[in-house]
Write a structure and sequence with these properties.
The complex is a heterodimer of chains A (about 200) and B (about 350). By secondary structure, chain A is an alpha/beta fold. Chain A is built from 4 helices and 7 strands, in the order H-E-E-H-E-E-E-E-H-E-H. Helices cover about 30% and strands about 20% of the residues of chain A. With about 350 residues, chain B is of the alpha+beta class. Chain B has helices at about 45-50, 55-60, 70-85, 90-115, 120-140, 160-190, 190-195, 205-210, 215-220, 225-230, 250-275, 325-330, 330-335, 345-350, 355-360; strands spanning about 5-10, 20-25, 30-35, 150, 155, 290-300, 300-310, 320. The longest helix of chain B has 29 residues, at about 90-115. The model of chain B has no long low-confidence stretch (mean pLDDT about 90). Classes of the chains: A alpha/beta (about 200), B alpha+beta (about 350).
């Protein structure tokens, strides 16, 4: 490996990010496109949810940026956030926010077939619907899973402390559901209660 | 011709890890296949949210029983970036050393699995016998054959002394001779070629469509390697080649992995020769300032991605792990279409599946 060529490659990738940012600002309302530098050498670009699909189409057409490393989904408490991590000699992540109630977004599988597993995982773990995803079955969760989205945040208990007695939750349940199995205690060391989800 | 659907797995004598296949065959030919994973899903991403940063080093180490060290390396370098820690050079070298030993171990294990799957038991025996050399080195270095617990946030925990360095170097020479013999057998044995050439083909276009990474991508002529493209740990100071091949079949994957093993041996020698003096670790605070990080590393199977978000407490708000096997699993229905039933084990072995990694 030659160190000089390496430096040149990384320089090019910084310029590439700059060009991508400019192209996105030209295509979409410029005030909605926000860039942020994140370690390690990653650029995060925030976009509205309905711009993600056209933005990825633009990345592929104009910059041949097709390697989607993965999609991270996370519940920030106020929204469901999706992060589309791309890689092309440098990291580029598209960030978007969805409402916690019935979140949905267009699938990327028509542009990048490799996105299918990542979308299925985000879908089962956070309850996000990917419109147009050809095979929306769960990827990792069991077939008889009760439908809860395990990576959703639970409402915090009023007094955070050690996890409550699991048998107590079996007795009280969360009311309402008659046949539904008792909610699992995912709160653990963070002291989340197991009141109803979503 | 009548179509028959054959279920394979999740529990099956020929599978090393639980994975379920539905193969639709017409005579001997596979016309369709469906895949189901998740049988060893342990919810590790959620577990990480409930543990503090120090505990998580040991949680992520247990994602995989082969490439445990690259998981802790990628996780630790992410947390270190959030903390703004400057990891001592000696620690980076030792991390890289263990990472390359792990790659040798993983690739040789893989060669054995492939050989066994295609009925070439001699290579299986030789590859696994020689792999013990690396496992012994890793055990003497860290105390563990698979879970090394060498990485800590801020550096490494274990040092090597002069005598150990000499002993490792001597055994690496021995190992290289053995691998050269294996390589010779593979290159000249006609049955091996007959079973692997043209089997499980992936074109450059398919690799790019499915975002495949690692040796599987490199065997199809896609030149990607995080060690060179995003040099982490000590890779910036190392001189190495990225091995690629053009054929895109199981044969090409074999050549890429065996040649990579030899390349890793050279890297280990460089690391040991240039091992800088200095401290092993810097002290890391328990609380991590708010922020996010994307950390990437090259696992034996390809690009490994960690996304970590901190909310300022002593445990992460989100840890997302993308393991390389997930990218190759999605290509299996394409690879299996049209192959002979007898070649299924070769295709499955060819992409080097690690279901525990994929399921997390």
């Amino acid at each position: 490996m030659n160190n000089e060529t390496m430096n040149n490659e990384r320089l090019e990738s910084a310029m590439l990010v700059e060009a991508i940012l400019q192209a996105l600002r030209e295509t979409f309302p410029a005030e909605t496109v926000e860039a942020q530098a994140v370690p390690i050498g990653e650029t995060f670009i925030a976009l509205p949810a309905d711009c993600i699909h056209p933005a990825v189409r633009l990345l592929i057409k104009r910059f041949d940026l097709r390697h989607l490393s993965t999609i991270t989904g996370q519940d920030t408490g106020s929204a469901i956030e999706l992060l589309y991590h791309f890689w092309d000699g440098g990291g580029l992540t598209l960030r978007t926010s969805l409402p916690r109630e019935k979140p949905h977004i267009a699938t990327l599988t028509d542009l990048i077939p490799g996105a299918a597993f990542y979308e299925r995982e985000v879908s089962e773990m956070l309850g996000v619907t990917f419109d147009g995803l050809p095979d929306p079955r769960p990827l990792l969760l069991p077939d008889d899973w009760n439908g809860e989205a395990p990576l959703r945040q639970r409402p915090t208990a009023p007094t955070p402390g050690p996890s409550p007695n699991p048998s107590a939750s079996l007795r009280t349940g969360s009311g309402g559901g008659e046949q539904k199995p008792p909610p699992q205690n995912w709160g653990g060391l963070r002291g989340g209660g197991e009141e109803e989800t979503q | 011709m009548t179509r028959i659907t054959i279920p394979i797995g999740p529990q099956h004598p020929a599978l090393k890890e639980p994975l379920s296949f539905l193969l639709t065959v017409e005579g001997e030919r596979i016309v369709d296949s469906a895949l189901r994973i998740g049988y060893v899903h342990r919810g590790i991403e959620r577990i990480c949210q409930n543990r503090n940063y120090v505990q998580n080093v040991h949680v992520v180490e247990r994602i995989c029983g082969i490439c445990s060290h690259i998981h802790t390396t990628t996780y630790c370098q992410g947390v270190e970036a959030l903390l703004g820690l400057q990891v001592p050079l000696r620690a980076l070298y030792l991390r890289t050393l263990l990472g390359e030993l792990e790659r040798i171990h993983s690739h040789m294990l893989w060669l054995g699995v492939l050989a066994e799957n295609i009925g070439f038991t001699t290579i299986f025996m030789y590859a696994w016998r020689d792999r013990e050399t690396v496992l012994d080195i890793m055990e003497e270095f860290s105390g563990g054959r698979v879970a090394h617990a060498v990485n800590v946030i801020g550096g490494v925990r274990i040092d090597v002394d002069e005598a150990q360095v000499d002993s490792i170097l001597a055994r690496l020479d021995e190992l290289e001779q053995q691998i050269e013999i294996l390589l010779g057998v593979i290159q000249h044995e006609r049955t091996f070629q007959a079973r692997t050439r043209g089997v499980g083909h992936l074109s450059v276009e398919q690799v790019r469509r499915y975002c495949v990474v690692g040796p599987t991508a490199r065997a199809s002529g896609v030149n990607v390697d995080m060690r060179r493209d995003a040099p982490y740990a000590a890779y910036d100071w190392l001189d190495f080649r990225v091995i690629t091949a053009e054929e895109g079949d199981v044969w090409a994957r074999t050549m890429v992995r065996v040649l990579e093993t030899i390349e890793s041996l050279h890297m280990c020698r460089q690391l040991l020769a240039e091992l800088p003096e200095g401290p092993l670790a810097v002290r890391a605070p328990r609380r991590v300032p708010p922020g996010e990080v994307v950390s990437r590393g090259e696992a034996p199977r390809g690009e490994l991605v960690y996304y970590i978000r901190s909310d300022g407490s002593d445990s992460p708000a989100r840890v997302k792990i993308r393991t390389p096997t997930l990218t190759t699993l999605i290509t299996l229905p394409d690879q299996l279409r049209g192959v002979n039933t007898a070649d299924v084990p070769a295709v499955l072995a060819g992409v080097d599946l690690c279901i525990a990694c994929a399921d997390r």
